[in-house]
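Researcher: Following up on the earlier apo prediction. This time include the ligand. It's zinc ion, with the SMILES given after the sequence.
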Amino acid sequence: MIKEIKKNLPSGYRIYKRSIQKTDRSTFALVRTPEDEKYLYCLGQQYDGFQGGKRMKEGVLYPLTPNNAFILIEIFPFLKPKSLGINNPSFGFGDRLGVATPGHVRAVSSHNNIIPIFAQQSIRELERTKRTPEEVISCAVWGVFQEGYKDGFGADADHLKTLKDVDRVAPYGFTMFTCDPSEYVNSQAAVMSRKELKKEFDVINEREKLEKRYVDREFKVGSLRLKFSEEELMRAAVKYYRAIKHAENMYRYIKSRVKGEFDFELSIDETEEPTTPKQHLFIINELREAEVHVTSIAPRFVGDFQKAIDYIGDLDEFARQLEIHVEIAQAFGPYKISVHSGSDKFSIYPLIKEYTKGLFHVKTAGTSYLEALRLISRIDPEFFSRIFHFALERFEADRRTYAMTTDLSNIPDIDRLPVKELPKLLEQNDARQVLHVTYGSVLNQKDRDGNYLFKDRLMRILNDHEEEYYELLIRHFARHLDPLS
Ligand SMILES: [Zn+2]
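Model: Understood. Below is the ligand-bound prediction.
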C-alpha cells in the first residue's frame, strides 16, 4: 500500500504509515512535503465535500482544515468523538497548541482500560489561545488519523458557564459538556453568621421543600449515615442552590441542542472553600430530583490543586474525603469523581486509583504546553530564554484568574544559567507556574509589524521536531497514567 502511494507522489514526500486507510474506492494517508507541511492525500476516486484540493499526478492533496476533518469523520467513523459513559476511567488531554494528539495517543495506547479525551478546551482557553471549537476538534481528529488510533475518544467542551457558551460549542461534535456554575456559588456561605444565613435561606422559594427533604432525615451512603442539621442544610443551600438551578438549565439546554448521547460533568472545583461530602450529597440529590444525569462531578477537594505542580496538602485527609465523595457517587449514581487541574499531581494518583475503583476522570491541559516549552528549551535555548523573560513580565497580570502561591524569588536568574541548564527551569515549581499561566500572552504577542513574536517560531520548532515532542509527551504522561491504571 505504502509503495502504491509513494510512486504517485513526487520524491521527498514522506508518508505517515499508521495513517493509511482504505475504503472500497480510495486510499487515504497523511503525508509530509519536503517543506515539512502536512496534507491529507487521497488516491483513487475522490469524495465530495473536501476543499482546497491540489491535484497531483495521481490523487489529490488536501489541507488539514476543520472542514476537511469533518468530511473525513463521515468516511471513517473511528474519527468521531464519542461519549465516555462510566464503564471505564477516563483521562483528559487538553492540547492548547493543537499538535500534541499523536503524543497523547501513543501515551494512552499502552493503557487500554483508560478512555482518552483528545479534544478538550475551556472557554477561557479558547479566548486566550484565540482558537475556535471546530479547530480544537479538528486538530484532535488529524492527530488520531495520523496515528490510526481506533479505540475511541471523547471531546470535552470544558468549563462552560453560560447558555451562550453552549451555543458556541454545540454544533461541532463535542461529546462531553462540563458545566461550571461557579458564578452562582455563594462562597460567603461558609463564613456567614446564623442570622445572615437564615436571611439568605429564606429567599429561596423552595426552602420548605428543602427542609422536608433534608432536616431530620438520614441518608445512607455506603457504610455511612449522613444527617443534616438545620444549619448544615442552610449553608449547603445558600452556597449551592442557585448554582444547581443554573446547572439544571444548562443541562436541559445542552439536551435540546445536542443530538445523541453526551456526558455531562458538573465542575465546582474553582471555588474557594472545599466541597464537603454533605454538600456534595446535597448537590447530587437536588440534581437527581431534577432528573439531571451526570457522568461526573468535580468537587473542590481539600488541599491545594495549583496549576503545573504536585498536590499541596494532607494526603491522609485527601484520601479520607475522597473515599466519602466516592461513596456518595456510588450511592447516588454511579458517576465518576473528576479531578481538575489534574496534571502533575503525582502524589495523589495512587490514592485516586485505590479509592475510586475506576470511577474517575482526570483532566490535564497546560502540562502539554509545558512539555512543548521543554522541547524549545533544548532545541533553541536562546528563544526559550526570550519566552521566559516575556512570561515573567506578564505573570502578575495573567495569574489573576488562578489561585497560586508562586514565589518569583525562588526562580534562578535565567541570564546567569548556562544554556545547558535552561531545561531545568521546567523542573522548578515557580518557573513552571510562570510559564503555565502566561500561555495566552506568549501565543498572542505580536511585534510592531503585526507578526507573532513567539507563536510562529514555536509552532515551526514543534513541527520540525514532532517526534521529539511526542517522546516528551509519552514520557511525561507515563508518570500520570502508570499509577492510575
Ligand atoms: Zn476545572
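Model: The longest strand covers residues 115-122.
Researcher: Noted. I'll compare it with the apo version next.
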